């Protein structure tokens, strides 16, 4: 089983703060499980990826599918939605950094477009 399969098989855990964000080593290891299009923000507090689509309808279809994932996991991304493009950023705001939840949801986001 790959690290990505492991992540997509997990569920997000509630996070209301009080736990430390992932450190640089943990983050680097989890980044390996994601599509190479994901980028770590310069401050290390979020990950983001741009997705491109051939039409507005496909763009909104992706956004709707992503919203379903976010609601199912009770973990929600920041989105920028444009014609033919979505920028998705995952972060755990309650801890001002990254948690495993962000990587679980990013892996599930990858599955929406990568198969």
Quick recap:
41% of the residues lie in helices and 17% in strands. The protein is built from four helices and four strands. α3 (56-73) runs antiparallel to α4.
* CATH H-level superfamily: Transcriptional coactivator/pterin dehydratase
- State the end-to-end CA separation: 16 Å
Q: H/E element string? A: HHEEHEEH
CATH topology: Gyrase A, domain 2
Shape: globular
- What is the CA-based Rg, rounded? 14 Å
Overall pLDDT level: 91
Structure overview:
It contains 4 helices and 4 strands, in the order ααββαββα. The chain is an alpha+beta fold. The relative contact order is 0.25.
Layout of strands and helices, then pairs:
Blueprint: H1 3-8, H2 24-31, E1 39-40, E2 47-52, H3 56-73, E3 78-82, E4 85-90, H4 100-114
Antiparallel strand pairs: 1-2, 2-4, 3-4
Helix pairs in contact: 3-4
């Amino acid at each position: 089983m790959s690290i990505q399969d492991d992540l997509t098989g997990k569920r997000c855990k509630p996070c209301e703060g009080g736990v430390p964000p992932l450190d640089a080593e943990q983050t680097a290891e989890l980044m390996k499980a994601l599509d190479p299009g994901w980028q770590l923000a310069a401050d290390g507090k979020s990950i983001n990826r741009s997705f491109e689509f051939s039409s507005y309808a496909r763009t909104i279809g992706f956004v709707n599918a992503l919203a379903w994932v976010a609601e199912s996991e009770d973990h929600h991304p920041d989105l920028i939605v444009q014609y033919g493009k979505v920028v998705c950023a995952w972060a755990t705001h309650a801890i001002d950094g990254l948690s495993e939840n962000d990587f679980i949801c990013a892996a599930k986001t990858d599955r929406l477009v990568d198969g």
